[in-house]
Amino acid sequence: MTALTAHSISQLDAHWRAANYLAVGQIYLMGNPLLAEPLRPEHIKPRLLGHWGTSPGLNLVHTHLNRVIRERSLEALCVWGPGHGGPAVLANSWLEGTYGETYPDVSRDADGMAKLFRQFSFPGGVPSHVAPETPGSVHEGGELGYALAHAYGAAFDHPGLLVACVIGDGEAETGPLAASWHSNKFLDPVHDGAVLPILHLNGYKIANPTVLSRIPEDELDALLRGYGHDPLYVTGSDPAQVHHAMARAMDHALDRIALIQQEARTAGTDPGRKYARWPMIVLRTPKGWTGPAIVDGDPVEGTWRAHQVPLAGVRENPAHLRQLEDWLRSYRPEELFDADGRPTAQVLACVPDGEHRLGAVPYANGGRLLRPLPLPALDQHAVPVDKPGRTLHEPTRVLGRFLTQIMRDTAGRRDFRVVGPDETASNRLDDLYGATGKAWQGITEATDRNLSRDGRVMEILSEHVCQGWLEGYLLTGRHGLFSTYEAFAHIVDSMVGQHIKWLKTARELSWRAPIASLNYLLTSHVWRQDNNGFSHQDPGFVDHVLNKSPEVVRVYLPPDANTLLAVADHALRSRDQVNVIVAGKQPCFDWLPIDEARTHVTRGAGIWEWAGTDHGSREPDVVLACAGDVPTMEVLAAAALLREHLPSLAVRVVNVVDIARLMPHEEHPHGLTDPEYDALFTTDKPVIFAYHGYPWLIHRVAYRRTGHPQLHVRGYKESGTTTTPFDMVVRNDMDRYRLVMDVIDRVPGLAGRAEGLRQAMADQRIRHHAWIREHGTDLPEVADWSWPY
Amino acid sequence: MTALTAHSISQLDAHWRAANYLAVGQIYLMGNPLLAEPLRPEHIKPRLLGHWGTSPGLNLVHTHLNRVIRERSLEALCVWGPGHGGPAVLANSWLEGTYGETYPDVSRDADGMAKLFRQFSFPGGVPSHVAPETPGSVHEGGELGYALAHAYGAAFDHPGLLVACVIGDGEAETGPLAASWHSNKFLDPVHDGAVLPILHLNGYKIANPTVLSRIPEDELDALLRGYGHDPLYVTGSDPAQVHHAMARAMDHALDRIALIQQEARTAGTDPGRKYARWPMIVLRTPKGWTGPAIVDGDPVEGTWRAHQVPLAGVRENPAHLRQLEDWLRSYRPEELFDADGRPTAQVLACVPDGEHRLGAVPYANGGRLLRPLPLPALDQHAVPVDKPGRTLHEPTRVLGRFLTQIMRDTAGRRDFRVVGPDETASNRLDDLYGATGKAWQGITEATDRNLSRDGRVMEILSEHVCQGWLEGYLLTGRHGLFSTYEAFAHIVDSMVGQHIKWLKTARELSWRAPIASLNYLLTSHVWRQDNNGFSHQDPGFVDHVLNKSPEVVRVYLPPDANTLLAVADHALRSRDQVNVIVAGKQPCFDWLPIDEARTHVTRGAGIWEWAGTDHGSREPDVVLACAGDVPTMEVLAAAALLREHLPSLAVRVVNVVDIARLMPHEEHPHGLTDPEYDALFTTDKPVIFAYHGYPWLIHRVAYRRTGHPQLHVRGYKESGTTTTPFDMVVRNDMDRYRLVMDVIDRVPGLAGRAEGLRQAMADQRIRHHAWIREHGTDLPEVADWSWPY
């Protein structure tokens, strides 16, 4: 660590002033970018949008990251938690040249500066937040909470990478961020890169002081040490002093990181390796620093009033206009830009070269680094199926063996991880521990099993952190899977929504290379929460994601183990998507041999001829449709009852594995055309559809189909408790007996002919209720059922 | 604080052993509850379900809470974070007698004990978790994360109440819990009760060690001090020693709480009042303590293997059966229960009386304490509307004045709070600060505004904490409102799902008195996120809640300020519901005088005759329907265009304020009957429906209606960015011009007649695009539009 010269400080300050000038310009100006003439109202945008408050702090961090990256030839990326400070990050990208390289018409000159200013938050321009459109970004700063988890996700398995992460003191109040601090217990200094958290205490949110800026300093220090960090404090409002302090803190932090890594990498996997206390920086500077101190008599700089647009009435109010001009000129733009608007050498002195620039680092455009996964042949992991419905397997356990092989085959590359909230074993994926351990840097005890410092199974009891880690990992060019209890996927509803928005936008940007899809395995699902009951029963995550961009979202409900394998294989090859796979962990009948499973997944929906009695091309009397493992079993059991008791009834069985197939072809790339749909479901025959989740989802995707008026859906209707598996389907009217009754009620002319059968079915339901109350288990004929044909 | 005598300790231990015995019995036994004979396989349940691991710890806490409640005559309730330890809480409730008082057939004797055992996790019995069915509970321990926020919510404005809160070390890893620690900065020792967090480090989750149990002790201590607590440690596995230590810690903590409260209440609102460091207890005992140490050669007690059912094969495996019997007998049941199964005096010595018992405290059945809110007359706050569509008001600001009056009128009672994630002012509710401040116990500065120690507006940048606080507040008998940005309501999707499940179940329990509804104001909505763009645009929270129990859920989309007032008035009077109100904060046309608004809300949907041209009873040619403020404006603008250009077309305008009206009458208590629906929408005329959110929601609620094939819905289809308000509706094809084109396309015979108008509308859309790119603002004829008739 060397003391900075006055010359270096003046270079850093020039860069910072330039970035601040450009940030203010973006918020306000649509003309006169270099202040070549006095500001006039027509130079001002008609709608003033943007967030000034955090921008000078972000500019300071970017400036100082530039210096250390350049001096140390670092590979670094930065996660900008306060990404609503878009003007700051855009300003820096333009200064370092990556913006103009990505968008050549926004060149690094006066003309480009004018475009940079005008396009910001302007219709047809660029969003006000750091977004996929921003070079170097892997994190949209709109919905706060995920910055630190994203940073860790980016650092895992990138041992040469430094991930700086700016955390706003507003964001620090959120739950996901608060939980993410403990990510350092899962980061291996040998195989992973480093995360440098920079907690920016500018003191205020939109309208309130922040908690962490208003607790006693010793309490804050204790908190950060409690998180396992050694905090370095940079505090002040005098730029020169803050530059000095920030440079010192950066150097200190990077030296310390290098030392931790060196020690760990020398010690290797030696169990005596130290528990690392990573450095972090606490940056305490005024909100809206260098902006207007007072506006209309109220303090603005250093208060919440600086959050967005400090001077609101610039177009109409000459005093505000003059104050804006003074503010802009306070950065002395004439020293920072030449007559053509190009940044001077002094401004650019700290900027790194080429791919070392934060806007050009390939890690932030992860698709450029992505390699296809080595996927094992499915036949190696498939279960044999001689006859359908005779053997049972736990689908997720079969999947676990497939994932284990991938884990083994990526042992050297280290670009595949499985995350989950303490449920990997519960979800029957524990074969994975034959190939890798569970990441863990905490204290260990003799009774522990499968923990390891370099494990690539990640378990923390926070769905938010799991999701954030995986997003960061994928966005920086790797592969992964998130396994979780189905009901608790809702915990990350908002996160997946933001990730889908990111992918939707990124797909439209030619310079962003496709990344691996985010794959969910939702298991321990609604029908088999025997142990936990009502609180663990919610199949609605599928409904949530299907509201989002259809080009991004896929939902699969494989009915058995082999189909799950085929779906997983497909999902792990896909790019830029969110694949939601819902599959059970309890023993489930095997229906399809692997070749048929693969074909079935490719088709997404198909007639199971062996299960029906409509004999191929014959028009059926009724269609029994199903999606999901438990519904498939109930439909098959209903089909068997009908074949036994009403042998002349032509029943067609259709299984749907890819829910989007039901959607109109025009609305989803997987949607069936109307003739394709009609060929499966007919246009006029009753369709009794047993669906895994909320029944109205099927109506909402299929309402435009010709046969929709004949569609009758059974599914989960929020009736649950701790009870037996079959009682769950009875409670929700999706059991085999009810389905047979539905057929009798809906096939014209059947009601009279099958009155006895209908009564027998109703009696079975009554018998069921009596039986479980006495025995606590399901009816023997249900528990012991298998496909009889 | 006095040292406990050996006698007291033996009484506490007897109670604890009894509770442990009863917990094990619930998991395993369906006969022979008192071990009157050797255990045989037929005494064992066929399905072994339940969570043993946490139960002995919960029993210890309950036992020791009993002692201090009894000795100090406390009013206390306990939030059991590890509520999956249902057997423990049920055991204690049965011991103290509240279970038998609530459910008389489960009496405190051998017969009742047999029922207690058998019903647990048995079909038709009780859930395995602490649930609404559990006396004394306000918290279901299924989805982890919300215990501490619930505890604070319960303590606010209950100055005489102690809320103990057990936090499992698994739950402590979740984001919401991690954020909730800072709730102590919002708790006023004068007007609020006390929260005593008890962090239970039993070391393991389902299958992994926990983070907080495996960091260095000094780091844990720093963390808890960083949270603002003074931790007291109780560590051990020797019962006698732990009893002593726990009793000391409890006494110390309660003495300290009493001192903090006394000092603060003496000092009053003196600004020099101290920043309180509240005590908390860290309880470090083995998971599955007192259970089987080793099973089949593997360590179980003190490891994750004790999480659920430590002995799994009891029915089939004689060795396991013997081990279970030894385990049960290790509690010496013969000392704890008399021959009739009644707990002995020794066991009951620590149990408090009457409503001091944790299972009987009225705070945990909050409806018993609930008083109706004093609601101001709507006329006092309504805006005058002489003619529709001429004046503009910010609806949420008008609502804010109404809420302010309520805040004022509850200043003495203190049973109404407004929570929000730093958005109360942004959401234009800041008139509230005229009646109360924002709760804040942190350091203050001279520039601060509206912070106060006893404020009843609660702002923390965590939707999770806001939601948890409000749930706890409502469940203990008070009223409130949660205002938040619409898009970020998804952050609490899972929490509201759990609360709806709670309410659904609680409504079915006659002994639970109805509580105030959870009211959401979703604003800063999808159509007016000018500043923030795509990441802030998501109207899907409504879709999420509408999947849940219809008896609980209501969704309102008031089209103007007066309608919002009428909706809020209705919501604040309702009970046991979740009311989602979506309303804008931007200036919005006033359409209805307050009397009409009130009638409109009562009807939920109605024909706006003044806006249409179908003149009352005449059959219209087309129905223009709308739900939401922006859709209503676009529909009215389209209706005006049609009236001007196609005066002979009979247009009916229908506004829907209560979305459930569209659902079938059989499926939702607010659903219209078919004749009612048909009277509004016709059975065969084209209906062009402009809806606030995802358009398919309308199809999914209305698909059974006769006229459904003629229903054409426009809404948000995930097309957004930072742009102008009108550009948002154009991007999503919901603008007035597009609606007119839809009418022309769908009314039979109109296409030819109105070709010119259709072209003019298409041209206007093109003009719009050109205009915003040049000017950055909306077309003048849109920006200046008002209802012209």
Automatic annotation (TrEMBL), chains A, B:
Its EC number is 4.1.2.-. InterPro entries: Phosphoketolase (IPR023962), THDP-binding (IPR029061), Transketo_C/PFOR_II (IPR009014), Xul5P/Fru6P_PKetolase (IPR005593), Xul5P/Fru6P_PKetolase_C (IPR018969), Xul5P/Fru6P_PKetolase_CS (IPR019790), Xul5P/Fru6P_PKetolase_N (IPR018970), Xul5P/Fru6P_PKetolase_ThDP_BS (IPR019789). CDD domains: TPP_PK (cd02011). The keyword Disulfide bond does not apply. Keywords: Lyase, Thiamine pyrophosphate. Its cofactor is thiamine diphosphate. It comes from the Bacteria. SUPFAM superfamilies: Thiamin diphosphate-binding fold (THDP-binding). Residues 585-787 form the Xylulose 5-phosphate/Fructose 6-phosphate phosphoketolase C-terminal domain. Pfam families: XFP, XFP_C, XFP_N. Residues 5-368 form the Xylulose 5-phosphate/Fructose 6-phosphate phosphoketolase N-terminal domain. Transmembrane segments: none annotated. Belongs to the XFP family. This is Probable phosphoketolase. It comes from Streptomyces spororaveus.
